[in-house]
Amino acid sequence: MSKQELKDLIDSLRSKGITDENVLKAMLNVSRHLFVPEVVRHLAYKDSALPIGYGQTISQPYTVAFMTQAAKLDSNSKVLEIGTGSGYQAAILVQMGVKVFTIERNQNIYKITRKLFDDMGIRVAAKYGDGTIGWEEFAPYDAILVTAGGPTIPENLKKQLKIGGRLVIPVGDRTTQAMKIIRKTTDEKYEVESIPNFAFVPLIGREGWKDE
Ligand code: SAM
Question: Is 0.85 surpassed by the pTM of this model?
Answer without folding.
Answer: yes
